[in-house]
């Protein structure tokens, strides 16, 4: 299994708005080959810290998704979000190979 976390900071007063956006996400990634799960995590001490947590069967499946046209389309739409403060956020991406369960 392969895990990808994208951690980003938003102003705490905008955290609920971002959570709503993710609750209404297109779910296109859910249909990608090798995709296993998606979770949006919120830090309990710092409400503005959010993590997109995705699980994939393999690193190759994840890379196939990142190189896909659907991935590019989704991320182009994010850049056009009306709130430019949110649209300009660049997450810190961490990738992990599961080595034991």
UniProtKB/TrEMBL annotation:
Its EC number is 1.14.-.-. GO terms for molecular function: monooxygenase activity. Pfam families: ABM. The keyword Kinase does not apply. Keywords: Monooxygenase, Oxidoreductase. The keyword Oxidoreductase applies. Residues 2-90 form the ABM domain. This is Antibiotic biosynthesis monooxygenase.
């Amino acid at each position: 299994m392969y895990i990808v976390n994208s951690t980003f900071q938003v102003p705490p007063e905008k955290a609920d708005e971002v959570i709503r956006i993710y609750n209404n996400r297109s779910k296109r990634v859910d249909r990608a080959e090798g995709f296993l799960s998606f979770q949006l995590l919120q830090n309990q001490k710092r409400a503005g810290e959010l993590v997109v947590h995705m699980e994939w069967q393999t690193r190759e499946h994840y890379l196939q998704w990142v190189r896909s046209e659907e991935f590019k389309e989704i991320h182009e739409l994010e850049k056009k979000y009306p709130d430019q403060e949110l649209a300009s956020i660049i997450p810190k991406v961490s990738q992990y190979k599961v080595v034991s369960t």
